[in-house]
Amino acid sequence: QVQLVESGGGLVQAGGSLRLSCAASGNIFSINTMGWYRQAPGLQRELVAVITRGARGGLTNYADSVKGRFTISRDNARNTVYLDMNSLKPEDTAVYYCNLRTPVYNSWGQGTQVTVSS
Known about the structure:
Blueprint: E1 2-7, E2 10-13, E3 18-26, E4 33-39, E5 46-52, E6 60-62, E7 70-75, E8 80-85, E9 94-101, E10 106-108, E11 112-117
Parallel strand pairs: 2-11
Antiparallel strand pairs: 1-3, 3-8, 4-5, 4-9, 5-6, 7-8, 9-10, 9-11
């Protein structure tokens, strides 16, 4: 079983920055993808950014809406993934969920609220 603990959400003004962190613990496969998804009220959960680990570790993928503003990174020694969010916009307001996906399981964190005021 894997546990994901997120931190770093909060309230910020438009144009501001936040850093989200997600620490994974438990039985973690060495080959995995970690990332962030978000869900705004009334909308489906959507991918924000993911980063791989393994033979081709470090590959990233971003939603078009966040490219150039958000940066995902990971510390494999700490099983932690980060999301640096800059130039935040009100439309970035959502609950952000950490995700860890392996060939065997797919785990989610409980979510952290990010609110961007205009």
